[in-house]
């Protein structure tokens, strides 16, 4: 059976797609990192809970929370990527 579909080629080189995805990945990482780092700083005082008070009392606590949030983010992305292989295997 002959496939009559033709997809237009936007770029001849795969390097262009690699560069585009790299720029998107790096910029998304920078933005999400800055958002997580500044979330506790910009929240109004009446919305801060005990964690906010603790981070003001112990400045290093923000570093530990930032590391934990980053680790959870990476673990979530890893689980999502791994589950895609599982879904493909089941199809």
Helix-strand blueprint:
Layout: H1 14-42, H2 50-57, H3 60-90
Helix pairs in contact: 1-3
Explain the overall architecture.
There is one protein chain. By secondary structure, the protein is mainly α. The protein has a domain at 51-91. The chain is built from three helices and no strands. Helix 1 crosses helix 3. The model has no long low-confidence stretch (mean pLDDT 80).
Principal-axes geometry comes out as elongated
What is the radius of gyration? 21 Å
Tell me the structural class: mainly alpha
Q: How many strands, what sense, and barrel or not for the largest sheet?
A: none
Query: What is the helix fraction of residues, given as a range?
Result: over 70%
Overall average residue pLDDT: 80
Number of strands: 0
Termini gap: 23 Å
Report the sheet-strand fraction.
under 5%
Name the helix and strand elements from N-terminus to C-terminus, one letter apiece: HHH
Number of H- or I-type helical stretches = 3
- Sequence stretches where pLDDT stays below 50 over 5 or more residues: none
């Amino acid at each position: 059976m002959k496939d009559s579909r033709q997809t237009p080629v936007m770029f001849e080189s795969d390097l262009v797609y690699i560069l585009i995805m790299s720029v998107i990945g790096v910029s998304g990482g920078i933005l999400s990192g800055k958002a997580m780092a500044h979330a506790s700083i910009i929240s109004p005082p009446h919305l801060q809970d005990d964690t906010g008070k603790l981070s003001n009392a112990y400045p290093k606590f923000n570093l530990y929370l930032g590391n934990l949030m980053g680790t959870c983010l990476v673990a979530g992305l890893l689980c999502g990527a791994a589950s895609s292989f599982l879904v493909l295997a089941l199809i």
